[in-house]
Each structure stands twice: as structure tokens, then as C-alpha cells.
Amino acid sequence: MRDLDHRRLGRELGLFDTDPLMGAGLPYWLPDGAVVRHTLEEYVREAERAAGYRHVYSPVLGKRELYELSGHWDHYRDDMYPPMDVGGEQMLLRPSLCPHHALIFRSRTRSHRDLPYRMAELGGMYRSERSGVLGGLTRVRAIQLNDAHIFCTPDQAVEEAAGALALISRAYADLGIRASRHRLSLPGGGGKYVADPALWRRATALLREVLDASGSAYEAVEGEAAFYGPKIDVQITDPAGRESTLSTVQIDFHQPERFGLRYIGPDGARHRPVMVHRSVIGSVERAVAHLLEEHGGAFPPWLAPLQLVVLPVGEEQEEHAHAVVREAAALGLRAEVSGLAEGSLGARIRRARLVPYQAVLGAREAADGLLAVRLRDGRRPGVLPVAEFLRRVEGRVRARGTALWEPA
Question: For residue 102, which of 9, 182, 354, 379 sits 20 to 30 Å off, Cα-Cα?
């Protein structure tokens, strides 16, 4: 069995690394890894914009009082970094984005006509993970989270949560990953959870309605809820059989009450909104780790750090190869020349085995404006005009998904 551990793959492919001076659980991204991360983040932003989300930025610090109000200080303190004294005030690195988004929502008067109000952010948050559980990108201390909060009327909550679950499914199809199961995460015993049985029952009933309507098989598991409410966890499994949560959908009645959130209803009175928490790909770090292991480093064409490599057969074709790369770049493709200085043609082809598209350029092809096309999976679509080949590659990248090639 191939070693698909993302830590080995990430270092071998030059995507990310760590340094003891930066600290455990704090990986840094190398150029090719930064390309994957940026492309993934832009994909999510585009999908969210198309689904009616508005993007915001919020600070990674907050006063201790903010997290006391949200309930994080009482229920989540063990996973938070200790307060810093800043000008006589206690400031904390945030463990979650939801308190900041609640403040943004309540900063303006909201009407029922503004709802649902879908607020999204790719933002940093920080968890004080124990050293023994840290590993590669899957458990880190500084997290870039694809997060969103939908503020809606109670009657809109099921539809909004269902829409979030559908957005997750579409993203998984484009990324070439699959959910191993759905879990309805419920509270367990002890003082970890907010003590309001009526709100828990209400939120749980709504999430069951969402899951039943989706047709997704699921199981209810106690002790896995967020401290403020139940959630749908979309579970993934790595090649070693280890399961983890990648995406979530939550319905929250607790924080709207704690923050005093209101909207003006059609009756002119003030009403309490529902807060739907939703993450399409969860943390960017964990998503990239799973993509690496799922695809063995052979990312879908639209996500690959290098999408096309042009391989001149002789020195005479190198100038022409660079011209092809410039044409590809003008179409937004990530392309490079692998020239003779890098070894024999066979060695260069082997080195580019994870690149979705390889284009061999010999004397005949250069003279006629053609390319001999090879796909990563071993298929050879034949010899194509440069413009046609680049147009077809650009079409596959624009369409996203996992297919390498489509018949003309």
C-alpha cells in the first residue's frame, strides 16, 4: 500500500513545512502549497458569493468580556490561550469567529427584509492544542477557518441549514472527496454544555428535519455537540481509517440570546433571529491534508499547483515551449517549461507524473503549431493544435471537478 500520509507528501511535494523556532502546530506554506491554499480559498469565496453570502473581515483578538458573553470563557476555556494584558485590558486570541460575527450583525438595525443575512469569512482562529495531539496540517494551533453565520427568522432556519448542507455536497464533488457519514452531534453529560434543555430540543428537531429531507443516512452521537447547540458533522475518513470532521452545520438559539440580537418584524416589533453556523470545508489546513491523502498528491486539475508542463524534445524547441507557456498563462493556467537541462525526456515525464497535463514538443510539432498531449493518468489524446489544446485545458479548469479530459 502506498504511503499516503499527508505529512510526507506535503514535504516531498514542497507544499508546507515546520520549524522548531516557529513552534509545534504552526506549519508554514511554501509557494506551491500557497497556490493550493489560495485556489481553494478563492473557490470557497466564489461559491459563497453565488449562494448569497457577504464577506467580512474581523480581528483575531477580542476582549475577555466578549468571550464571557458568548459563553466560550465558561465552556471552552481549556482550549483557549491565556489572556494577554494590553493597556490594562485582558485580550484573547479568538477560538472562534461567531462572537465577532454576532457583534457585526448587531452593529446595525436589521429588518425582516434583510433576512436571511449570510455573513462569511475566511479567518484565523487559535486553539491551545496539547503537543501530543498535533500532527501535520490536521491538528494545528493557528487555524484558517472557512466560517459563515446566517442570521434568519425561525421559519427560515431549516431551509438555510439545508442550503448549507447542499453547498457542502457540491464542494465535495468538485474537490473529489466524499463524506464517510453524517453525524448528528448531541450534548453529553457534565457541565460542558449550555443548560437550556428547551433550546437544545428545538435546535435538534430542526437539524433532524434537515437531515431527513436531505436523504442522508446519519446517526446521533452524544457528547459531540458544540457547547451552545447541536450540529451536523460531515465526517471524512483518511486512508488509514481514521475519522475526523471536515464540515459542519449548526443551529444556535443560545448566542442570539446572549448577544441580544434583534430584527424588526413585519409587525414592527423586535424579534430574536436564529443563528446558523456553517463551514463548507472547515479549516483550510485540514482540508488540504485530506485532499493530499485522498488524491495522493494528484490534485484535481483546477487545484493542482502546476497544471501544465511543456516538454521540448530538443534545444531548438525550447523557445517555442516558452511561447506556449506564455499563452497558457494568458488564459490563467499555471504552466512551466521542463527543459533539457532537467534531464532526458523520459526523466522529465516521470518527474511531472502528478501534473495533470503534459505537452511534448518536437521539431514536427513546433513547425506545425502542434503539441503531443499526455494526461497524468496515462491517456494520450493525440497531437492537437496549441490553441485548441489550451482552450480545452482551460475549459476543464474553469468547470472544476475531477475529470482530466472530455471528448471534443
Answer: 182
